Amino acid sequence: MLGLIIPAFLALYLVYLAFLHPLARYPGPRVAALTNLWKVYHVARGDYEHAILELHRKHGRIVRIGPNHVDISSGDAVKDVFLAGKSWVKSSFYNGFTALRPNIFGTTDEVIHSARKRALTPGFSMQSVVQMEPHIDACLAELISRLDRAADAGETINLKDWVAFFVIDVLGELAFARSFGMLEQGDVNAMPPLKDHLMLAMLSGQLPWLVPYVNRYLGHVPVPFVQRVLKGRGKLRQMAIDCVTARLSKPDPTRRDLLAKLIEEYERGIAKGGNNEDGTLDIADVQTEAFGFIIAGSHTTATTITFLFWHLLHNPSVFAKLEHEVLSQVPSSGEKSDGSDAAAACTPYSATTHLRYLSASITETHRMSPVFTMPLMRVVPAGGARIGSSTLLPGGTDVSVCSFALQHDPSVFGGELERFVPERWATDGEDAGARQKLLMPFGAGHRACIGRNLATAEINKVAVSLIRRYKMELVGDESVGGMPPTHSFAIADLIGPLRVKLTRR
Ligand code: HEM
């Protein structure tokens, strides 16, 4: 009997999802109306954002990509979902990102988020970033001396790898008070396994009810690939724990970095007799947030710099214009021509902020190749909500905006979106201003990126320092324009190397 009842219920439920559910009127792949496995499939292929873009091109503004999930590509969604205030909470998809405890990025609890944000925001102010600049410069000088060596030897380098080494070393210095030593090792195989963590987060996040079981039981699954991924995540987690313990046992009051800010908050909590319920951080929170900074801040920043150079090198006239701006407007810092002065070749952030074409080129990179490719998901508040004037969504629906799809949507961003045109942003026109408000490479609203100032400082400093020091030439790729080939687990990655030959100016 049970053998008949269960299939009958299942069949009825599938009919309900496909034809009677409140989201049934929105178009999308048939299978996506029935199961979140459509998303799992595309996440596993690394082409989730491309699949969403294709759906919008085929069906329009709103597409159903899960039984209870619609993705929207419109300026209204940016305003009504992300800029509407705290009633739109993050969806349970974000539980997939929890490796220690939910951190500021992953928490879906707005009370915890507000307290955490109050505590962490000062550490990311522009003033704090400037205080941390010596740590960035130490890594930048090392990057430059490694690139000098390659330039002098006439070697071709993979710029993507060197940028990734630089950024992870900076984050190690700032969040763990210890460099990962990647610039020194120069070995891509020694990189911390961030992508494994992101893949696991993205896959399990699509089926949030599975997350507790993944965390508890996946370790017992005897599949080598699964074991490798879990080992990678565990290694990074242990590193966070060790670094925090080491810093607490040997305090260094002279050191200004992100970990110092976290520990200040922890000590402030102890002094207040904090019990973790008033938003103060306990020791596990310090570890969790330090871990989160590495995950949220490294691959994102590195890939943005890689995409910036990819677009510049594939658009020589744009690159020439930017070189002219940089060489004519950034004063020499007195480097010697023998190259014994990598430290002096690090451009201060303050010397880059007036460069309008640089800023436009970075904005165009964020527009064309936003690295945060995962759709940003929120839950419609109880009682339902309107997006724009015409769309009414029921409370509890998962809604997302995928920046990649939105920023390639001509109805929002105008024509020729597959062309790299910084001039879009280099004017003061009303149109450019209005469109800029809809760009979401760093998210939008109260859950927007906390590390934006730090990322911007790193991107500007690397771009200007390298452009001032070297002429760059693409190797083995004569294509002009176009889009970089990518593969994504939450964050995009350039497929293959960015092979470049450097010549000292
Ligand atoms: C180019 C580099 C970066 C990009 C494109 C980027 C992008 C983003 C995006 C899109 C979000 C919003 C996610 C959402 O709504 O679900 C976010 C949040 C966040 N990012 Fe970044 N990020 C970058 C660099 C950094 C850095 C350097 C750090 C820290 C070291 C950082 C830390 C965070 C944190 C903690 C959050 C969560 C904020 C909150 O929920 O209040 N990010 N980032």
Automatic annotation (TrEMBL):
Keywords: Heme, Iron, Metal-binding, Monooxygenase, Oxidoreductase. Pfam families: p450. Its cofactor is heme. It comes from the Eukaryota. The keyword Oxidoreductase applies. InterPro entries: Cyt_P450, Cyt_P450_CS, Cyt_P450_E_grp-I, Cyt_P450_sf, Cytochrome_P450_monoxygenase. Signal peptide: none annotated. Coiled coil: none annotated. Belongs to the cytochrome P450 family. This is Cytochrome P450.
